[in-house]
Give the backbone structure.
Amino acid sequence: MKNKFIKSTTLLAVTMGMLSTVNAALYDRGNGMIYDSEQNLTWLQDANYVVTSGYAAANAVFVSGNKSRNNVLTDGRMGWDAAQTWVSGLTVGGFNDWRLATVTDRAMWVVTTV
């Protein structure tokens, strides 16, 4: 019984730690950019910028099978390699050092938004 109580208390403590308040703030940097103070990152305000910028329509490619990593669809979906190509040539607000979000970024979202 005591062991069960300790496990329950430990689980509660871990869960409460994950529910702590986050002090992040989002700041509008103008020119379609949002700054995240928690992650020290600037995000594009338009999550579908690949479409609204005209890039998807101008560069649409669809290949089935193993080459799908290079796909660019007119609705903005694209394969990983195509997305890397797009972001490497992206300039917004005078910045040209954009990158795609990583698994590490995603892990931070999960922890900070619980």
